[in-house]
C-alpha cells in the first residue's frame, strides 16, 4: 500500500516470504520482487512494481496476561473505606480528596482500580470518572453497578460469580498493557515437579510398586516382570 500527500491510498503489489527466511536478516535472500496481479494481467510487458529489501529484522516476544502470572505472583493487602487495619483495628474512613487526580496518576502505575456501585443511586459522575484518563496513558479503572448485574432468579453463588467476572474482566488487558509499555518481559513459568507417587502407570496386581525416598522426592522402582510371567504362562513370584 502507498499513501500520497493528499491522503489518498493505493495498492502497490505483494510478495511472499516466511518468518524462517526473514529472521536471517538483511541480505540477497531477503530481496523480494513486488507483483501487482491486476497490472500483470493487463500489461503484456509488465515485470514488477518494485522491490522490497529487508534492512532490519527484530524478533519481539509478545507476552500475554497468562505468561506473566504463570511465573508466580505476590499478594499485597489492600484496604477500603471502613476497613479495620492493624495494629489498632479502628475503622478508617479517610479517602483521597482529589480522587480524579489520583486515578489519573495511577494510569502510570502497575495498578488496576475497580469501583463497585451499590444500590440505585446516581452514578453518572463515576461513569465519567471511569472514562477519564490522562492523554497517552492506559485505562486502569473499571466501574460496575451491582443492580445491573444481579439476577433475581439466580442463586447467591451465581450472582457472586457474575459480579467477580464483570469486575475483573478488564484487569488482564490492563496489566498486559502496562507490562508492554514498560518493556517488562515475562519470567519463565514455575516448574511444578509432581511426585511419582501419584503418577505411576506401571502398577502390577500383587506386585506393589516400591518407593525409595532419596532427598525431597521419592523415586519409583517398578519390579521387572519375567517375560514368561507377562504372557501369563508362569506364576513365579519375586
UniProtKB/TrEMBL annotation:
<dbReference type="GO" id="GO:0071277">
    <property type="term" value="P:cellular response to calcium ion"/>
</dbReference>
<dbReference type="InterPro" id="IPR010734">
    <property type="entry name" value="Copine_C"/>
</dbReference>
<dbReference type="GO" id="GO:0005886">
    <property type="term" value="C:plasma membrane"/>
</dbReference>
<feature type="domain" description="Copine C-terminal">
    <location>
        <begin position="100"/>
        <end position="185"/>
    </location>
</feature>
<dbReference type="Pfam" id="PF07002">
    <property type="entry name" value="Copine"/>
</dbReference>
<protein>
    <recommendedName>
        <fullName>Copine C-terminal domain-containing protein</fullName>
    </recommendedName>
</protein>
<dbReference type="GO" id="GO:0005544">
    <property type="term" value="F:calcium-dependent phospholipid binding"/>
</dbReference>
<dbReference type="InterPro" id="IPR045052">
    <property type="entry name" value="Copine"/>
</dbReference>
Amino acid at each position: 500500500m502507498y499513501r500520497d500527500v493528499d491522503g489518498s491510498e493505493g495498492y502497490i503489489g505483494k510478495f511472499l516470504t516466511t518468518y524462517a527466511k526473514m529472521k536471517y536478516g538483511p541480505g540477497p535472500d531477503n530481496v523480494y520482487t513486488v507483483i501487482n496481479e491486476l497490472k500483470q494481467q493487463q500489461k503484456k510487458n509488465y515485470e514488477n512494481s518494485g522491490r522490497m529489501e529487508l534492512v532490519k529484522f527484530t524478533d519481539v516476544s509478545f507476552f500475554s496476561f497468562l505468561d506473566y502470572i504463570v511465573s508466580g505472583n505476590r499478594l499485597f493487602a489492600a484496604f477500603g473505606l471502613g476497613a479495620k487495619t492493624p495494629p489498632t483495628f479502628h475503622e478508617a474512613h479517610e479517602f483521597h480528596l482529589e480522587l480524579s487526580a489520583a486515578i489519573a496518576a495511577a494510569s502510570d502505575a502497575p495498578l488496576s482500580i475497580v469501583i463497585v456501585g451499590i444500590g440505585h443511586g446516581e452514578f453518572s459522575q463515576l461513569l465519567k470518572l471511569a472514562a477519564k484518563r490522562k492523554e497517552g496513558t492506559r485505562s486502569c479503572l473499571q466501574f460496575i453497578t451491582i443492580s445491573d448485574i444481579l439476577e433475581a432468579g439466580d442463586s447467591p453463588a451465581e450472582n457472586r460469580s457474575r459480579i467477580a467476572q464483570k469486575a475483573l474482566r478488564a484487569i488482564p488487558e490492563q496489566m498486559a498493557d502496562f507490562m508492554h509499555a514498560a518493556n517488562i518481559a515475562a519470567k519463565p513459568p514455575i516448574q511444578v515437579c509432581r511426585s511419582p507417587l501419584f503418577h505411576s502407570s506401571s502398577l502390577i496386581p500383587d506386585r506393589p510398586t516400591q518407593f525409595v525416598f532419596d532427598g525431597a522426592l521419592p523415586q519409583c522402582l517398578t519390579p521387572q516382570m519375567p517375560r514368561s510371567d507377562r504372557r501369563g504362562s508362569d506364576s513365579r513370584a519375586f
